[in-house]
Amino acid sequence: MKFPARTAATTTALLFLANSAFAHGISGLQCPELEHLTDNHPDCQSWSRRGECEANPGYMLINCQKSCFSCIESDVDFGEKQKLYYQDECDNNGNVKDLEDKCIKPAVVDELAVKDVIQQSIRYIKNEVMIHEKYSRVRSKCRNDHDMCSIWASVGKCEMSSPQMIDMKKECAPACQTCELLDECGPHFLNSTNVWKPGDLNQMFEQIVDNAKKKTKENISGIEDDKVTAHSRPYHYHTSEEAGDSGESDQDYHDGPWVLTFDNFLSSKECDILISLGDQLGRTRSLAGDKYSSSRTSSHVWCTESCDLHPTVREIIQRISKVTGVPEVNFEHIQLLKYEEGQFYKTHHDYISEHRNMPEGVRILTMFFYLNDVEDGGGTRFRKLDDLTFTPRKGMALLWPSVLDENPHSIDQRTSHEAMPVLKGKKYAANLWLHIRDFRSVFDKGCM
After folding, report:
1. Are 388 and 254 in contact (CB under 8 A)?
2. Which of 117, 145, 223, 239 is the most buried (most CB within 10 A)?
């Protein structure tokens, strides 16, 4: 696949990106060189927003070109052509309109100062905005919206503000060199509330286990006979009395991070519906670069848009939120999986360190669902927990943390795990990851 080369030393700068958030943000722009690009799958835009253009470029950059690639066309003044002096009088006295749209006597304008602002704007755009990653989401928006921007900037208006004035730093961003303020996904997102503080992880798991002992269905999943078992948990939580109450012995669990099973978290019908949704959407193999991943051989698809709105999916999401106490906005979309005979996912961790400095924060919990009984193989194994292994059983859910109780932003290395090879038959499953902060708002804005 051949893409047009970036032009240089002209008044038009073409910027081609495999950056999902930015490409999504400027999908309405058209460039003649890119008009032929198309998407070959209805979920291309959703995948692009999720970051698949970078994660799976071998597939995405061929089959989702329209969603992954876009461009910017901008002339040297990056927006309205800039005036060097006041030209438009608003009355017969030589007055001109100012930022507050009032007719005033024009300030003395130093034409050389205006030219200097324009030259600095050009250098700023070319040497900073078009290069540095922090501007990736705002390159298409960084424009002088008014032909007087450079004049106003030359007389110090960038630092002035009032309710009646235009917002110089946004409407004249190149002249004021403030393009970063146009980023809707900027630092303000980092101020969203963390759902956990130190100690909350253990408290959540303890509450789930305690509620299970009470056998009050409304406090667990709402599914009849949904037994909850702690296969691994911190030693300090366990006592002999508690073991007697629950019918468990000292040997029934590992001393380590929490790992729970819910025997019947999903009904048989719900499992069948999730499998059907995955079939309808079309799962694809995981890629590493332009080749199939050698560590993950399964296929998957994200349950976004209409799939996410399916009544069964909505009910499952609400149920998980009720059990964990984590708000739905912190949930990623469900990932629908399929493992053919011989397929596997080698040891890995669901925690992604890059998320620490992203608006949504890190993944704190994984909920994994088995959607069918597998004839042989396909278990989930935690090597660092004495090879604790779970055999797939239709409707069963696993719940474990990716972070530490004392620091819910830091990885708990002990919960690395693997999907063992399917030896006979097929394995259908689903993943759901919960974040420490609002994920859905960030995703909906294309800020991933």
Report:
1. yes
2. 117
Instruction: Provide the CA 446 distance to its chain's centre, in angstroms.
Output: 8
- Mean pLDDT, the chain, as a whole number? 82
CB of 148 closer than 8 Å to CB of 106: no
Handedness of CA 436, 437, 439, 442 (dihedral sign): negative
Taking a C-beta distance cutoff of 8 angstroms, is the pair 158, 365 a contact?
A: no
Task: For residue 296, list its beta bridge partners.
Answer: 345
Residue-wise pLDDT for 18-51, tens only, equals 333 222 322 333 355 566 778 888 888 777 766 6
Alpha helices, H only, 262-304: 268-281
Structure tokens at 33: 């060189």
pTM of this structure: 0.65
Domains detected in the chain: 96-183 (no CATH), 200-444 (2.60.120.620)
Q: Enumerate the β-bridge partners of residue 377.
A: 422
Query: Can you tell me the distance from the alpha carbon of 288 to that of 97, in angstroms, rounded to the nearest whole number?
Result: 57
Amino acid at site 57:
P
